[in-house]
Specification:
heterodimer, A: 118 residues, mainly beta, 7-stranded mixed beta sheet, B: 108 residues, 3-stranded antiparallel beta sheet
């Protein structure tokens, strides 16, 4: 069974940093691209970033480019999102999701809440 | 960047009725790169339809997808109470993925 488990969320002040992790199990992690998708309270889904299966290519939404860094460790079956210079508008639930053919997500984690507030 | 616009914002229908949800793209989207998701309150999204018209594993056949180019449709043929949720379309590209703003389906 495929499992994706996010961790690292919490309450932080604007301008500070936070690192989210996604632990994967039940599949060959190194064969799949992985994404972060977030959802602000009461709002829709917003794609954040993707890292390809081998970690060589990474892409970001314009709203986080230059502040967030996605990475992965295929030896540990984990993916991370380093979030710097956090803003109130970064508040939300952050999901990791498995990519299929760069076309859709077939598995999602349960989400990790991030609150940026003074 | 491709923008996806979903309509209507909310659908309120009775059990057994048919729901038709629309997703319009600002530019042409390859059919292989259009998916639909269901998100129930408090849950993570789950994929219903991928490649515009292929049902994901375990999805009931009352869910169907159609369309091409810039116009796509999700149809729920016979609504059941558990279909109460928000539905999102999503498109993917080489370096950018986007979601529509969602359609809320309410079961009377």
């Amino acid at each position: 069974q495929v499992y994706l488990v996010e961790s690292g969320g919490g309450v932080v002040q604007p301008g500070t940093s936070l690192r989210l992790s996604c632990a994967a199990s039940g599949f060959t992690f190194k064969n799949y691209g992985m994404h972060w998708v977030r959802q602000a309270p009461g709002k829709g889904l917003e794609w954040v970033a993707v890292v390809w299966h081998d970690g060589r290519n990474k892409y970001y939404a314009n709203s986080v480019k230059g502040r967030f860094t996605i990475s992965r460790d295929n030896s540990e079956n984990t993916m991370s999102l380093q979030m710097n210079s956090l803003r109130a508008e970064d508040t939300g639930v952050y999901y990791c999701a498995r990519d299929i053919r760069s076309a859709y997500y077939d598995y999602w984690g349960h989400g990790s809440p991030v609150i940026v507030s003074s | 960047e491709i923008v996806l616009t979903q309509s209507p914002g909310t659908l309120s229908l009775s059990p057994g009725e048919r729901a038709t949800l629309s997703c319009r793209a600002s530019q042409s989207v390859g059919s292989s790169y259009l998916a639909w998701y269901q998100q129930r309150p408090g849950q993570a999204p789950r994929v219903l339809i991928h490649d515009a018209s292929s049902r994901a594993t375990g999805i009931p056949d009352r869910f169907s997808g159609s369309g091409s180019g810039t116009d796509f449709t999700l149809t729920i043929s016979r609504l059941e109470p558990e279909d109460s949720a928000v539905y999102y379309c999503q498109q993917s590209g080489t370096s950018f993925w986007t979601f529509g703003q969602g359609t809320r389906v309410e079961i009377k």
